[in-house]
Design a protein that fits this description.
By secondary structure, the chain is of the alpha/beta class. Helices cover 34% and strands 17% of the residues. The protein contains nine helices and seven strands. It has helices at residues 25-31, 51-55, 72-75, 87-93, 95-104, 112-115, 135-143, 153-163, 169-178, and strands at 9-11, 35-39, 59-63, 80-85, 120-124, 147-150, 183-187. A seven-stranded mixed beta sheet has the order 1-7-2-3-4-5-6, sandwiched between helices. α3 (72-75) links the parallel β3 (59-63) and β4. α4 (87-93) crosses α5 (95-104). The protein is globular, with a radius of gyration of 17 Å. 32% of the residues are buried.
Length: 196
């Protein structure tokens, strides 16, 4: 059966889900005690007009390069935090990686994070992706208008231990937010796409 109003998954979490010392300090300062909408990338977002509910939060956490423009009714306009893998840094310095990413994600824009302004960008350093000196130029370019922080390995390792494998940025983002936000609302994650 359909719903007259969008379903909303809300969790009021204890502040001991993840050791606060593993959470990047800029994130603690930005979302401490606030309500955060965590917006995943599932296609199910287009089934419900949850944009106004998302925008009613203090901040939104988004993942990768998920588009907002043209989808505001469904995904809102609120920003604040982006969580991403470090692959985009490789694409900036290696044309074969850039081509590979565009093959899998046709709209991939290696300069996406450089074009943002006033955002906190949290980078999960993927295994086997060393930060090369050539990447520093791009990192500094992003930092001209944003705060870019690498998520501590301890936080990633903790999330991996809960998953039993390499965790997704979405799962990691939920854990990080749950350590310091007073309330999180989750949208666009596949595990909500289940029968009633």
């Amino acid at each position: 059966p359909g719903y007259a109003t969008p379903r909303l998954a809300t969790m009021v979490l204890p502040h001991n889900t993840m050791d606060i010392n593993l959470v990047p300090d800029p994130l603690v300062k930005l979302i401490g005690g606030k309500t955060v909408s965590i917006v995943g990338n599932a296609g199910s977002l287009l089934l419900k007009p949850t944009g106004p509910i998302i925008d009613d939060s203090d901040l939104a956490m988004r993942f990768g390069e998920a588009p907002i423009s043209g989808y505001e009714k469904h995904v809102g306009t609120l920003q604040g935090i982006y969580v991403t893998n470090s692959h985009f840094l490789l694409a900036l310095t290696d044309s074969s990686i850039d081509a590979h990413m565009k093959n899998y994600f046709p709209n991939f824009n290696k300069f996406f994070y450089s074009e943002l302004k006033g955002q906190l960008i949290l980078v999960k350093n993927s295994p086997g992706v060393p930060i090369r000196p050539a990447m520093n130029t791009y990192i500094e370019d992003i930092r001209k208008h944003n705060v870019l922080e690498f998520i501590p390995d301890g936080a990633v390792n903790y999330a991996n231990s809960l998953c039993g494998k390499n965790c997704t940025c979405g799962f990691l983002g939920i854990l990080l937010a749950s350590a310091c936000a007073s309330k999180i609302n989750c949208f666009g994650f596949n595990f909500y796409d289940c029968p009633d």
